[in-house]
Write a structure and sequence with these properties.
alpha+beta; Beta-Lactamase; five-stranded antiparallel β-sheet; 12 strands; rod-shaped
């Protein structure tokens, strides 16, 4: 799966699954609170029933007050009786801050029920009963909701992947069509470009003829086409390309690539200032190194002013290439790193150079930075 396709799929899944889970979470929260109130109401009803049984026992005691009185005690709940002035008479507990205006209320894990007795038995006007909240039904409810959300999550994730791939299928088809076009185009370009370049070199070496300027223009155009061919081939075969990583002398290779672009540099009357340390070695595939240097140099030439300047600095840990041109707005720097994106449409190109640099830099764990601003020089920095 290509990175653009992967990004689209991830964005779709984030929106789809995020909204789905948010909706399910809201529904689960509402359902949990509804069921919680049902469970608490059920336990309150049981507490009320216990209080009525206790009142019946108090009524019996009231009728037999001439005999020894024993307060009816039930170990399953606490109770206490109060007089009309809400003064404590007797009970198995004596809670504080009683909410006299409410029939049912809850404090922490305790449920309370206040029963108003009429007529008064043994001088008691109020009966307060309490028991601990039975959390087991709530725990079972939470467990059920968690299992439901997990099951729904798996189901909707699979459905999201299916829908995401279905939605990105047109993108994949378009990419595959573009890849086939690039493959066919590069195949057709290879032979004529190679023929043109080899014959130009032969003519320049073996013959002294007029039209040297015209020959240089042909050579310059051919080298531009050659680099484009190499870039398109890289985009198509990057993941299947067999690389031979070796210890490369980057100093020598950089001088060679600057010489390769001599015709293009001369055509724009650009001066090149080089500070290249000798014998700087890196572990790279040679073709990747050439492609990396070519794209940086060609961009420095292409987006430079006529009669401008290029500065090339190579040290043991960094490569810096700076040109003079219109520059890149700071907010566009990340944008132009993407494939087929260009900040300046006045110059030709497909917007693939920086993407190729980015890919190669990531493969070899290089740091790739672009320093620029509008109407300011642009500096590309590679460090390893």
């Amino acid at each position: 799966m290509l990175s653009s396709e992967r990004r689209s799929l991830v964005r779709f899944l984030v929106i789809y699954l995020g909204s789905t889970f948010a909706l399910f979470a809201l529904g689960a929260y509402i359902f949990y609170n509804f069921q919680k109130h049902q469970i608490i109401d059920s336990q309150n009803d049981k507490l009320k029933l216990k209080s009525e049984h206790l009142v019946q026992k108090l009524r019996v005691l009231h009728r037999t007050f001439d005999k020894p009185l024993f307060y009816p005690n039930d170990p399953t709940f606490d109770s206490a009786i109060y007089n009309l002035d809400k003064k404590y008479i007797f009970g198995t507990f004596q809670p504080e801050n009683i909410e006299w205006g409410r029939e049912y209320y809850q404090k922490g894990d305790k449920l309370f029920y206040l029963y108003r007795m009429q007529p008064y038995y043994l001088g008691a006007a109020y009966l307060l009963v309490s028991q601990s909240l039975d959390k087991k039904p709530l725990e079972e409810l939470v467990k059920m909701l968690v299992l439901f959300l997990l099951g729904a999550g798996v189901l909707f994730t699979l459905l999201g992947l299916f829908l995401g791939r279905l939605f990105t299928a047109p993108m994949r088809e378009s990419i595959e069509l573009m890849d086939r076009f690039i493959e066919d185009t590069t195949h057709e370009l290879n032979t004529p470009i190679s023929t043109i370049l080899s014959n130009i070199e032969l003519i320049d070496t073996l013959y002294e003829c007029e039209g040297k300027t015209e020959m240089k223009r042909i050579e310059m155009a051919s080298k531009t086409l050659s680099r484009l061919y190499e870039d398109l081939t890289f985009l198509k075969l990057n993941h299947n390309y067999h690389r031979k990583v070796e210890r490369l002398n980057l100093s020598n290779l950089l001088n060679e690539r600057i010489e390769f672009y001599h015709t293009l540099i001369e055509a724009k009357m650009i001066s090149v200032i080089t500070k290249i340390e000798p014998d700087v070695f890196v572990e790279m595939d040679k073709n990747d190194a050439i492609r990396l240097l070519d794209n940086i140099l060609s961009n420095a030439i292409k987006y430079n002013y006529k009669s401008g300047q290029i500065e090339v600095l190579l040290t043991a840990r960094t490569l810096e290439i700076q040109n003079e041109g219109n520059g890149i707005k700071k907010e566009h720097i990340e944008f132009v790193r993407n494939r087929f994106k260009r900040a300046d449409s006045s110059e030709g190109g497909f917007g693939i150079g920086l993407d190729i640099i980015e890919q190669i830099a990531k493969r070899y764990h290089f740091r790739f930075d672009i320093l620029s601003d509008e109407n300011q020089p642009t500096k590309v920095i590679l460090s390893w």
